[in-house]
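Long-time lurker, finally posting.

We've been working with Nuclear transport factor 2 family protein (Streptacidiphilus fuscans) and I want a structural starting point before designing mutants. I don't trust myself to interpret raw outputs, so I'm hoping someone here can both generate the structure tokens and explain anything notable. Sequence follows.
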Amino acid sequence: MSDLERNKQVVVDYYQTAFDGDPEKAIADHFGPVYIQHNPDAQDGPEAFIGFVRWLRGEYPNLKLDIKRVIAEGDLVATHSHLDLEPGNPDNPGRALADFFRLKDGKVVEHWDVIQEVPKQSANDNGMF
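Top reply, 14 upvotes:
Generated this for you. Predicted structure of Nuclear transport factor 2 family protein:
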């Protein structure tokens, strides 16, 4: 398996494990010695990540993360995902996420993201995903 494929698998497992409700396992399995966060609403480090996931799942206990695309280049992995906060609720169609992860030695060490609310109506018929 190439490093790019391995890095993609690491990110997908890390992200799914965390948002499926076990951020501690995601960190134990996939975090490097540091975790640099670029989202201005989040702090660096594993404790902040655990706190965020626990808070989000407390607000939206049935949330579902559906990773639609995974792209890797060098030490970076990008994901395009649908974070459905309330599956089945047409009044809350969730968020579209673009996440960028930097890995070092097969471990997640840095994160950037872009988050957009999924609109209830669109000016086109293409969909966001």
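Before you design anything, note these points.
Helices lie at 3-19, 23-30, 46-59.
The first strand starts at residue 31 and ends at 37.
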